[in-house]
Amino acid sequence: MMREHYRQQTEGLHGAAWRELGSELLPWLRRLGRRRQRLLVGAMLLALTLGAAIGLLALSGWFITATAMTGTLLAAGVVARLDIYVPGGGIRFFAVTRTVSRYFERLYNHDTVLRLLADLRGGMFRVLAGLDAQVLSRRRASEWLNRLTADIDTLDSLYLRLLAPPAVALLAILVVTVLLGSFAPLTGGVVGLALLVLWVWLVVGQAWLGMDASRRRVATLDRLRGHLIEHLMGLGELRAYGSLSSHRQAILGEEDTLYRDQRYLGRVSALGNTLVGLGVGLAMLLALWLAALAYRGENLSGPLMVMMPLAVLALNEAFAALPVAFTQLGATRAAARRLNALERSSSAIIEADTPRAMNDDGIEWRLEAVSLHYPEALTPALDRVSMSLAPQERLALLGASGAGKSSVAMLLTRLLDPDQGRVTLHGVDLRELSLEAVRSRIGYLTQGTELFHDSIAANLRLACPHADDAELWRVLEMVELADWVEQLPRQLDTPVGEGGRQLSGGQARRLGLARILLHDAPIVILDEPFTGLDRSLARRISRRLDTWLSGKTVLFLLHQLDEERDASLGIQRALTLIQGRLEP
Amino acid sequence: MSPSTPESHDDGLTPRRWLAGLASRERRLLRLAVLCGVVVGLATMVQMGLLAWIVSALLTSGATLDELSWAFASAMGVIGVRAMAQWGYEVTAQEASLRIRQAARREVLGHLEALGPVRLAGRHSAGLGGQLVEQVEALDGYFARFLPQLRLAVVLPLTILVIVAWLDWLVAILLLLSMPLIPVFMALVGMGAERLNREQFAAVTRLAGHFLDRVRGITTLQLFNCTESATDEVYARADDYRRRSMRTLRLAFLSSAVLEFFASVAIAMLAIYIGFGLLGYIAFGPAPKLTLFSGLTILLLAPEFFQPLRTLSQHYHDRAAALGAADGLVALLSEPLPEHVGERSDQRNTDLAIAVGLVGVSVRHPGRGDVLGPLDLEVAAGETVALIGPSGAGKSTLLQLIAGFIDSETGQVYVDTGNGFAWMDQRPFLVQGSIADNLRLAAPYASDAQLLAALERAGLRELLASLPEGLQTSLGERGAGLSGGQAQRVALARIFLSPAPLVLLDEPTASLDEVSEAFVIEGLKSLAEEGRTLVIATHHPALMVMAGCVVRLSQGRIVTEQSA
User: Fold this and answer.
1) GO MF annotations for this entry (chain A) (predicted)?
2) Fewest beta carbons less than 10 Å away: which of A72, A222, A316, B348?
3) Is residue B443 part of a domain?
């Protein structure tokens, strides 16, 4: 098992790979740099704790040996003196310092890390919110959850696990080397070199062994989570078709992969921990041997000879955190890589630097030879489409699903930008106007109703944050939901469930419609507004809509006109899209 | 209906009891881990003893290095043994934890399956998925680290105490006195940390749910110009999480700080006591008998006396995390499985010609009262029944009742599900995998030719022809890549492939384009002609026309029942 992984490893990790690793982590290091001061204080606290631990053990050893030797002399009747107060005070000082600095170091550093995490989480959401509909719709599933929470969480290891501990360990090696070297240069030099070799292995070697498996681990967890969510969402169908157990087998297979890697990684970090024990133990013996040689050669006093192996022994603590952290380096790297790709995503909707003012009286919309091609689709979604929408006109855009109706709506609301051609509002390219201004003038009822796991009131208030309850009831009345909401125990505060699942399809649709009514924009796009509603209800609502729509510019997106249902919508003109082209 | 229904749990299933039950599954491995840990501890003691002995021999007996080479060699040997035992300890404990987590995940998943789709509908699937992944993984530290360390924290300090007592009984008494204080302190600290940790887990789950929810609806947020406030909200949630975490950590770190304090102060005190003893300043007790060897050994063993407890306190948050996770998981496990209040039978014990028979059934949702019934309904085998009525009238609930996803509070339900049944609603269920994988959900052994035939019947031949990889074309999560109509037609093709005689459909044509709608309606007609029984909740006139019987529902009751 180990050997098999080893072989995989030897192929890919050379200079170029390490450079790549550096460039992947660089943006995150820079981000950390913004809180440089906090990081520095944290690292200093870490070093202080470690220094106190080394000092405590080394000084205690020195003290006991010195007292023993003085005691022997005293017992033999020789006049000897030993200052016991300075070392005694030093020992107490180190003991208290170690405890206090350790507590505050841990608290301080964890707070730093969680602060960074909140920054990162908000920052990533901002990135997402600026992406266009094409990227979003492609990826809007459970993998996002991981990308944005787990990935960012994984990057917390960057400072607290991957930066500060090796730096502090290196510092500790330096301190021990100098401490030993100032009394016995050879001992200091040799032991320092041995410890340095151990350090290099713990940082580079462990990372090298664990790279692939730990990198894979995140992706496997992702897949496992995806499968599980799928399993729970599709429980009905899976149960109906009796395929529950075979789908479950797929989940368990994924779990097997996960645990195979975990087992391997556990062994690699066990190897690291074993090497720490072995390396520090042997370095301690080496220090003792060399110091004993110096002592026998009368170049070193007895107490100082004892101090040396004890100082080395205290380094156990400095190395303890390294093996696990560096074995998991690949996970951090994979997370960084994914987040980098997301941030560099080219499909951001770019806000105009100096947006032009918008003219509000009588807005005319125009699509000028617009083409749009989704990256993975076989045919263009829109092919040189030109059309216009006059002020206060009610236009119906007809076509089967996939004909390109939603694409037109997304272009008008700048959820997408065209590949070719322009979308203009009163002759001005949409890209030159402020995003906020464009969107605040349009109410767009999308094909699927997106409801949030929140109360009915909160879902409505998205459209108008300052609306009072009376206004909410008024729009609920218009879509005939008021009676239903009124008899719910919690009324407007009733939660709608994940994606509105606590509501029936028709109720969710009407709630979406109510939200558009509340938004009250001068331009309205309605995509199949009556989906899932029975005919008489649709007729009643459409009559009320007609009144509300008067004076507004309206674009209906419909599969086809339905004389009876749409009679009261006041549609003045209809265009038909067929596979991305307007019917002549 | 689930293939492996886990045995029902006692009412008193607590997180602690559940964890104990899991641990007893891997008792042998965990014991082996403890044994290795004891060897590590003993080897450390021998190593320290040898170190003190070498120093003492050099300084007090004036031994040469040559005379001591055997001692150096044995010290190397002991360090080697210690390393091997260390390796064994970690690997065994990890293996036990892996196996336990696997078993725990299976148990919870089995329970969720048995709960069924309707009972789960009110929960975040992502939250549940997260629980099954993250919370189960959060058990790791408890089994791999905390539990073995708990034993070591008893065995090793006691051993050291015995050795120290032999060297200097006064020191042993000092250590002994400090000992009972430690667990008391740790228990106090641990209890608080545990509760906070539970809260934190709930916060993490909520945070995950909130995040996915906001990302799913990001288009809506963009359209309403709410991205700024949503970003602030996301930041605020994360910051709230930080504050919660800090509260947990402040206490969790306190327990290790207490131990740190004991360990440091003990070393300092011992060093000074031993030093004064060696100088001959202490005339009472065993102090005058102290030597450099015994003094140095005590000094080196003192940190080792506290080390197992310090390690344990570092893993204390593993325990708290595991208990927090177990709390969430046990809450799922304690969710009562559907109680069969109303009678339900799947056997063909009555009339062969009856596919579905409901007598006096009713369904209530918590907080919403009766949503269905009481009502009676009989569907003959081979019949097509349309359920109509305003939205919210209980059509979906009635279908879910027939499917067995929920149970009736009263009356009797008889459903002939000898060969399974087929289910389709407005949200076609597609798994991440190839088109073939998706179709074979219904018919695992269907040949490619059969799959192609089913797709052709669903009007997907053109689409398939345009795909270079054909049946092996992979679909993203939940059918990404297909339009809504195409996805629904894949689900239809799946019904064609399934041998189920009973087909339950919830608004199968809602939000479909004309072409897809026509194919779905034609497909349903041909299913009816095959002699399958169809129960369709619908608003579509064409489906009402094809039905042999139209049942109108209003406020959960049957208003009219018309046979064509």
Assistant:
1) ABC-type oligopeptide transporter activity; ATP binding; ATP hydrolysis activity
2) B348
3) yes
